[in-house]
């Protein structure tokens, strides 16, 4: 009887480890496949004919190492960015600020990142594998960001800039002709969250949003930008 139980235990453990190995290999295969797709999407450029202009409208692309944003000039009240993208109360409050940044991302990930907190592992996994609701993150700057490894400067024509603004505008969820601002404050005193269009998942990340924005503006950028390095590859 004892030998039978030992044998059954051995078989159970063996079966368990076999299935564990299969699952592990499957996950590794998925990671390798994703890495290959990301590399292929990064190396293939779109808008190859893009040429920087000497004078025009200056915008910036920034990263914190994982997440990317686009930064647009507030400029004058007649500027389309000011008129289209900024709700009246914010347009009035930040009329003297020079720039405003826009980022798109997973709702739960954003909201669990308050006070420098890192989201729970379950939230991260859900963010990647379960298409989830999204938010637009809006922040204001009094001065232009300093260009460096994590900040790239682009000069666009008025037509290119307008296309970029149109893309950002279309990313906001709109109800009754206006944006839907969350009641809670952002991470600091000058940033806010708004409900957004689209679903976030492994193949439609915050960096894919930035890449798509640049593509619509006609900027030379990678075909698919799931990672922040993908966004910056042709901006270097």
What does this 3D model show about the protein?
The chain has 236 residues and is α+β, with helices and mostly antiparallel strands. The chain has one domain (45-232). The protein has eight helices and ten strands. The strands form three sheets. The chain has a six-stranded antiparallel sheet. A hairpin with a 4-residue loop joins strand 2 and strand 3 (68-73). The radius of gyration is 22 Å and the shape is globular. The termini are far apart. The mean pLDDT is 85.
Summarize this structure briefly.
42% of the residues lie in helices and 20% in strands.
Structural topology:
Elements: H1 2-43, E1 45-46, E2 57-63, E3 68-73, H2 80-85, H3 88-93, E4 99-106, H4 107-111, H5 121-129, E5 134-141, E6 151-156, H6 158-171, E7 174-175, E8 178-179, E9 191-195, H7 206-217, E10 221-222, H8 228-232
Antiparallel strand pairs: 1-10, 2-3, 2-6, 3-4, 4-5, 5-9, 7-8
Helix pairs in contact: 6-7
Report the helical percentage. 40-55%
How many distinct helices? Answer: 8
Number of strands: 10
Strand arrangement, major sheet: 6-2-3-4-5-9
- Using the CA coordinates, give the radius of gyration: 22 Å
* Ends distance: 70 Å
Average predicted confidence as pLDDT? 85
What would you call the shape? globular
Helix and strand pattern: HEEEHHEHHEEHEEEHEH
Largest sheet: 6 strands, antiparallel
Q: Which structural class do the helices and strands define?
A: alpha+beta
How many structural domains in the coordinates? 1
Which regions are unreliable across 5 or more consecutive residues at pLDDT < 50?
Answer: none
Residues in β-strands, percent = 15-25%
């Amino acid at each position: 009887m004892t030998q039978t139980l030992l044998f059954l235990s051995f078989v159970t453990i063996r079966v368990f480890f076999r299935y564990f190995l299969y699952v592990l290999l499957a996950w590794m295969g998925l990671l390798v496949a994703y890495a290959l797709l990301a590399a292929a999407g990064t190396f293939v450029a779109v808008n190859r004919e893009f040429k920087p202009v000497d004078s025009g409208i200056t915008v910036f692309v920034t990263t914190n190492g994982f997440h990317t944003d686009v930064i647009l000039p507030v400029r004058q009240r007649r500027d389309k960015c000011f008129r289209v993208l900024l709700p009246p109360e914010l347009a009035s409050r930040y009329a003297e600020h020079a720039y405003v940044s826009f980022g798109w991302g997973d709702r739960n990930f954003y909201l669990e990142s308050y006070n420098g907190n890192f989201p729970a592992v379950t939230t991260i996994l859900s963010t990647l594998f379960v298409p989830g609701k999204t938010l637009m993150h809006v922040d204001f700057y009094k001065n232009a960001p300093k260009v460096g490894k994590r900040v790239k400067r682009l000069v666009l024509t008025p037509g290119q800039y307008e296309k970029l603004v149109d893309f950002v505008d279309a990313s906001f969820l709109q109800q009754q002709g206006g944006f839907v601002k969350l009641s809670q404050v952002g991470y600091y005193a000058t940033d806010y969250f708004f409900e957004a269009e689209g679903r976030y998942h492994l193949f439609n990340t915050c960096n894919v949003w930035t890449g798509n924005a640049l593509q619509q503006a006609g900027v030379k950028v990678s075909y698919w930008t799931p990672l922040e390095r993908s966004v910056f590859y042709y901006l270097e």
